[in-house]
Amino acid sequence: MSLKNRAPHSKHILRLLIIPLYVLLSSACAYCQSGSEPIIVNGDNVEYYQEKKQVVGTGNVSIAYKDVILTCDRITVDLATRDAEASGNVRIRQKDAYFTGDSIKYNFDTKKGEVLNGYINAAPFYGRAKQLGKPANKDEFIMNTGYVTTCDLDHPHYRIEARQVKIYPEEKVVAKNVRLYAGNIPIFWIPYWVQPLGRERKTHITITPGNSKDWGYYGLLAYRYYLTDHSRGDLLLDYRSKKGLAVGVNHYIDTREVGRGAFKVYYTQENNNLAFEKTGAVRDRYRFQYRHRWDMPDMDTSAIIEFNKLSDANVIKDYFYNEYEELGSTPDNYISFITAKKDYTSEFLVRFAPNPFYPVVERLPEYKFDILNYKIGKTNFYYSGNTSASVLNLTYDKAFPKRKNVNVIRANTYNELSYSARLFKALSLRPYVAMGNTYYSRNKWGDTNQIRTYFQEGADASIKFYKIYDFNTDFLGLNINRLRHIITPTAGYYNITTPTISANNLTRYDEIDAVAAANGVTLGLENRLQTKRKVGDQMRSVDLATLMINTDYQFRLNKDFWGVKSDRFNNLFFKLELIPYSWLYITSDMMINTKLCSAETANVDFVANGGKRWALSAGLRYQDSATMLSNQITMSGRFKINDAWSVRIYERFDTETKKWSQQEYVITRDLHCWIAEITIAQGDSTGNPANTSLWFIMKLKAFPDYPIGMRQTYSRPRFGEAGARQ
Q: Is residue 623 part of a domain?
């Protein structure tokens, strides 16, 4: 039987014969391989040879089989073996990748294929090879004697040539005997190269040159290596003209069996001191860090380890400022086992102090057991409690040798019984009583075997009112579809009796030791304004404005060390959030000292996000305390001038000194597959405007992250994130 293109209307005749052909081929497939899906060949001319059990198609041939789509000018399909040979404009697409070539051999069952003079598109990678193959039943492509690149031009700006390249779509690219070319100029050679394609897309090699007041001229080199799919790291080689040479290793593991961890070592012989200028002496500075987390789902337990050994208190601040800014100046050292069950949580903790220049409360060890709101039977009574046993040791900075460590054995228990009630459908009421007991092996004055007891009672109440206004308007583009006003006042009464041992007679290790007599109420008020807007295909409630106010009122006034009584009202807190448009977010908060009737802290953020085109933010940071007076204005923005150029700006102005304490300007140039950035920064976190830095970064557009963070700036406010800080 034969179908041929003999008349202008033969394509219409072909369509009429598709169904019989489908049935025939289905029968043939069922005869040759039971349970297999039929291979349907569509084309200008399709011929079926029953003796050979072959289908031959020519002219605009297309085959859709499971998740594979094949197109070509000519194809021969063996229905018995399900092998196909195609030629002429061959293209095979599977998932998010496709490859083309002069000719191809492909098996529809095993998905094994072989292409001559092939081209592959598996974004963000593209490549060509003399021979391109796909192993049977594997989601991978193998290129022999070819190249890969992230540049989609016919003549790419750069390419990575190798004897063999393996591409695992959405996972990674692996190459051996690698040579990097910029145009036709060879740059370097490495024996083995791996590039992930998942969420983490870091450039394989990063070179960051620059100049700053603290470092002088510098160059930071990072090389990312991969040992296995679960083991990778960065080799660091840095030079700073004012500091000297530094080396380091950051190694990471991520496994299902034992969790994920990080091991970091950094070492330098710093020469930035007078001793080096006179005698050539150097100063050894280093950091060693190990962090690991292992989640054991069968046991509902997480094991966490963190260890930091430093040469001095400022080494992280001087060499890894981004990490210092995020984590603070005192890195932790501990081993923790946390078990979280439905009704309770427990933790076994060991915290220690290997660095003698930080004050630390060591816990050698500590065990805690917490029960939160356990419902007693079918009643509305709930039990909450926590118990802990600790061996505590308060260490001090060894720069002050006269201050000796203070240690104690402490056992603490707190038990609370509460009742949950709802009245009038809107009023929630929770009265409670509690008792706390703590054993100390000794107090501050050396008296041994001390037991402290206190009692606590109180009640929490909240009620919710709301009203809906039938108000609709699109004035100024606000897109308001009815308004709902929700008011939620809250009040809580508490009374803590005088503990049998005063907090003044105890060494304070944490909040347990600071418990003191208190009697007062907490007052809060939340106002929320909502409207309906179309989100996706549905109308949903969205917040337009939220105002929260809370404070404490004391019935019993405490005295400090000098005999001065506290104020009846504690500080008053305000927080306001406004989201009039989906692209505009405004938040502010303020703490008012009721005794002085003045603001102690105030923060305001305006964040506008215009998508990829632009973004602007401005903020105010105010603090007035006994030890510090600060008033700063921050501004940042980014703007895409055109497809090639964009700029970013960050500035911080101190209204007290009337000076710019920090400025940063970034110019970005899109080089098709590369991104070039030039950054000029003046000032640092301390507000010293004399510290000026200049650096230049080149990074691949497909892999914008790089191993070394350079910007010594505060965290930028992010759109939609309440309480963002500069």
A: no
Place of tokens 């579809």: 481
pLDDT at 279: 52
> Mean pLDDT across the chain, nearest whole number?
82
pLDDT at 568 over 80: no
Count the Cβ atoms, other than its own, within 10 Å of residue 170: 12
SS3 for 241? coil
If we measure between CA atoms, which residue out of 715, 676, 722, 717 comes closest to residue 695?
A: 676
- Round to whole Å and give the CA distance between 130 and 150: 19
- CA triple 280-283-284, angle to 5 deg: 135
The pLDDT value given to residue 292: 95
Q: Give residue 630's identity as a one-letter amino acid code.
A: S
Q: Which long-range contacts does 148-156 make (Cβ < 8 Å, 24+ apart)?
A: 148/173, 148/175, 149/125, 149/673, 150/124, 150/125, 150/126, 150/673, 150/700, 150/701, 150/702, 150/703, 151/126, 151/672, 151/673, 152/121, 152/126, 152/673, 153/672, 156/126, 156/673
Question: For the residues of 635-667, what is the DSSP string, one character each?
Answer: EEEEEE-SSSEEEEEEEEEETTTTEEEEEEEEE
Q: What is the pLDDT of residues 109-153, one digit of tens each?
A: 887 888 888 888 877 788 888 888 778 777 777 888 888 888 888
Structural domain includes residue 558: yes
In a domain, 521, yes or no: yes
Q: How many domains does the chain have?
A: 1
Q: How far apart are CA 333 and CA 351, in angstroms?
A: 6
Q: Are 337 and 301 in contact (CB under 8 A)?
A: yes
Average pLDDT for 464-474: 90
Answer yes or no: is pLDDT of 683 > 50.
yes
| 3-class secondary-structure state, position 14 | helix
Mean pLDDT of 634-643: 93
Rounded distance between C-alpha atoms, residue 310 and residue 288, angstroms? 6
DSSP letters spanning 49-104:
ETTTTEEEEEEEEEEEETTEEEEEEEEEEETTTTEEEEEEEEEEEETTEEEEEEEE
Backbone phi and psi for residue 276, each to the nearest 5 degrees, phi listed first: -65, -40
Query: Is 513 contained in some domain?
Result: yes
Q: Which domain holds residue 563?
A: 420-570
Q: Count other C-beta atoms under 10 Å from residue 104's C-beta.
A: 25
Q: What tokens does 561 get?
A: 């060390």
Res. 37: pLDDT tops 80: no
Closest C-alpha to 142, from 179, 184, 176: 176
pLDDT at 487 over 50: yes
- Per-residue pLDDT, 408: 95
3-state secondary structure 476-518: HHCCEEEEEEEEEEEEEEEEECCCCCCHHHCCCCCHHHHCCCE
Q: CA-based angle 680:684:690, to the nearest 5?
A: 75
Q: How far apart are CA 454 and CA 413, in angstroms?
A: 11
Judge whether residue 403 has pLDDT over 80.
Answer: no
Look up residue 530 and give its two tokens. 């909502």
